[in-house]
Amino acid sequence: MSGGVYGGDEVGAIIFDVGHQNLRVGYGGEDTPKAEIPTTLGVWEEPADSSGIDCNNVTKKHYNVDVTAIQVRKKDMEIVSLMKDGMIDDWDMFERLTEYTYKQRLHALSEHHPILMTECPWNTRLKREKLLELMFEKFNVPAMYICKNAVLAAYANGRSTAMVVDSGATHTSAVPVHDGYVITQGIVKSPLGGDFITMQCRQFFEEKDIELVPACLVASKDVVRERDPPRWTKRPGPQPSSSWLSYMVRELLQDFQMNCLQVSDSPYDEDMANTLPMKHYEFPTGYNDDFGSIRLMIPEALFDPSNVKGVGASILGVGPLVTTSVGMCDMDIRPSLYGSVVVTGGNSCLQGFSERLNRDLASKTPPSMRLKIISANSSSERRYGAWIGGSILSSLGSFQQMWLSRQEYEESGKLILERCA
């Protein structure tokens, strides 16, 4: 490596963007991640090989990683997430996932590439130290840097100061970023995200008595008319665990979400919703139907949670999240935050998301402020916002002196984390 410059032309940095649902990983300087791997793993236990030694009750944990392996039906395999509240919770599973990523997806040696890791703005000091230790001690990376995903999402959209609205699987957050630093006291979170929308879809289908069966359990199906009971046969095999079944059903519901749901331009009105064209959807069992007003009613919860059963009045919709967050910041920077509201995260791919946020904020923004919503045109750019920002940052010449090198880690230990703002 030339003169300690880790991001020189010879060696590309690897960007790890760890989200609640997926790990996005790839080389710096590229447009999109090379791989997207679920952060949920299939876990099961088997008796350890005793090899002549009497060791009763000793079990060995096995892990299935990545989409194809998770979808294999195993009798006692549980589906477990290694994330909690946007932070890494199970380090053993994270280690397995990282090993798999290097060997199977990147075909790279960890000691050859510096890595840039994303983290959520509320990540704890303890978890950051653990991550630093794991990457330097176990994976022997030559250098690394940890950066807040909101900052990177702002960079991906060409901004160093922005209000980043990130709507992902477990929550929606509004994070103010000023000159590349997160303003911690201005972060506002809501527990409504993609998983909540999935739950709403599930409730709707249960009320309608529509059976949700994942495609991998269906051996064959007949063509039936609209709304007729499905005729299908079940694929033989071991009875899967309930966590595996609910994971596969969630995959099916997410497909329905991406194909059918749409955010209404204005607050939900049933009469208006009924005038919109219906969307046809066929389930793996062959059951098919046209869906109308429900397409707008379910995502409405993100913007106006007041009408949703079981949701407290204290939970804010996406518009109020932004205005509350801006209100908690210094008067001087409020105009620049309203002037660049960056929309990112999986839910922002729902049709009409940015337009509705623009409308909600336009009615709340003070007349003196200029409001601008920045939303990338392609859905993949919105989904991979933080990863793309990391890709841009790691390939900038001005960033090369920011890396925390292995040598510095060996000299100063975890204190070098202070440099990762």
Automatic annotation (TrEMBL):
SMART domains registered for this protein in UniProt: ACTIN
InterPro entries in alphabetical order: Actin, ATPase_NBD
Xref: PANTHER family: ACTIN (PTHR11937)
Family membership: Belongs to the actin family.
Name recorded for this polypeptide: Actin-like protein 6A
Source organism of this protein record: Atta cephalotes
Gene for this chain: 105626329
